[in-house]
Write a structure and sequence with these properties.
Elements (H helix, E strand, L loop, with lengths): L2 E3 L1 H10 L4 E4 L3 H6 L6 E2 L3 H5 L17 E4 L5 H11 L4 E4 L2 H5 L4 E6 L5 E7 L4 E8 L2 E5 L5 H10 L3 E6 L11 H8 L3 E4 L9 E3 L4 E4 L2 E7 L8 E5 L2 E5 L7 E2 L7 H18 L7 E4 L15 E2 H7 L7 H10 L8 H10 L7 H4 L6 E2 L1
Parallel strand pairs: 1-5, 2-3, 2-4, 4-5, 9-10, 10-11, 11-12, 16-18
Antiparallel strand pairs: 6-7, 7-8, 8-9, 13-14, 14-15, 15-16, 17-20, 18-19
Helix pairs in contact: 8-10
């Protein structure tokens, strides 16, 4: 029986730069949509399931490091690991597969003006980006998508007390941990003003200020991805949620019919044009990455000038922009309707792995 490896250990190995080969044996379409950073791929899933004992025989792999095999749920990867063991390799199957990897994360750190420190918390298996923003011994958490202990530990490392938790909008691809985190700490949970959420929160509107430490966060109302979507400005950095990404824009069609999607696309166009008037060196820190964030510690970020130059959609006139977004939306995230309902009800089921599994699909390129 081949050995297995848990997600936490693989996460640590990748963070520490330990020599390891990650071999993904899922079908090509699944691998192309989302994968573990730096992994190799062989489309062998169906052949392994069918009992093909030779499918991995000709696939060359380094012999001086362990091989971690990966599939969807950690079952077929065990078959792959056994085949590799028969070749004399040390092979380990990733427990829980990509469903479990959905909760793997890494971080990147950056410093803003006036002594503000930012930890970009990257849910590598999902592409969700959340933030701990610290100043003068106090911190805010923006768009938390991981369990509360992650943010508790990061705040402790910074010697900071979390004094508020914010979401930029109601998410459709993952369950927000904001309500649970705020409750566990007894601090305010901030949300853009709307009437969709059933639990108590502090509403935020255009121009509102949230002070923390020696700094402050300013609210910019940016409807389009959702009607309540907002972005947050802190010391020259824009926490843009799902309105603007570093190489794409948010989609306006989730939980909307075609007419509403077009109306949201119009609003999104105006929101983006407004953001593009910010100083060119404003740093865009989005709510999602469009590829698996690696373990290099390099922030997933770009300046407004870089985004303006690199995202061709932003050059379109309003009517063309609306038509393009209406016609080019990708497939909706799995379980998005249920996830939205749970976020509206501030409910966090005990088991969320299957519910959140899969890549985020919040952007249009």
């Amino acid at each position: 029986m081949s050995e297995s490896l848990d997600v936490e250990t693989l996460q640590r190995w990748l963070r520490e730069g330990k020599p390891v080969t990650v071999l993904d044996i899922r079908p090509s379409d699944q691998y192309q949509e989302w994968s573990i950073p730096g992994s190799l791929h062989v489309d062998a899933y169906h052949q392994l399931k069918a009992g093909d004992a030779e499918i991995l025989k000709g696939f060359e792999l380094p012999a001086d490091r362990p091989v971690v095999t990966v599939c969807v749920a950690g079952n077929t990867s065990r078959i792959a690991a056994r085949q590799l063991e028969r070749r004399g390799l040390r092979a380990l199957s990733l427990e829980g597969g990509m469903r479990a990897w959905s909760f793997a994360w890494n971080e990147a750190r950056l410093a803003l003006a006036n002594g503000v420190d930012v930890v970009q918390v990257r849910r590598a298996g999902k592409g969700c980006l959340s933030y701990l923003v610290a100043s003068g011994g106090q911190a805010l958490v923006i768009d938390p998508s991981l369990e509360e202990r992650v943010y508790h530990e990061l705040a402790s490392q910074h010697g900071a007390e979390i004094v508020g938790v914010l979401d930029t909008h109601l998410h459709a691809d993952h369950l927000s941990r904001a309500h649970a985190l705020a409750q566990s700490l007894g601090v305010p949970r901030y949300l853009p003003a709307q009437e969709r959420v059933d639990c108590p929160f502090t509403p935020l509107r255009e121009g509102d200020i949230v002070s923390f430490g020696a700094s402050r966060l300013e609210v910019l109302f940016t409807p389009g991805h959702t009607w309540e979507s907002s972005a947050y400005l802190v010391e020259g950095a824009l926490f843009s949620g799902d309105t603007l990404f570093v190489d794409s824009v948010g989609r306006p069609d989730l939980e909307a019919d075609r007419a509403e999607a077009r109306a949201r696309a119009v609003a999104l166009y105006d929101s983006l044009q407004r953001l593009l008037t910010l100083p060119g060196d404003t740093l865009v820190l989005p709510g999602h990455a469009d590829a698996p964030p690696d373990f290099s510690g390099t922030p997933w970020a770009a300046s407004i000038s870089e985004v303006r130059a690199g995202v061709e959609i932003l050059e379109l006139e309003r009517a063309d922009f609306v038509e393009y977004l209406t016609d080019h939306a990708p497939a909706a995230p799995a379980n998005h309707s249920l996830i939205v309902k749970l976020n509206e009800a501030c409910e966090l089921p005990g088991t969320v792995g299957d519910l959140e599994a899969g890549a985020n699909r919040c952007a249009i390129h």
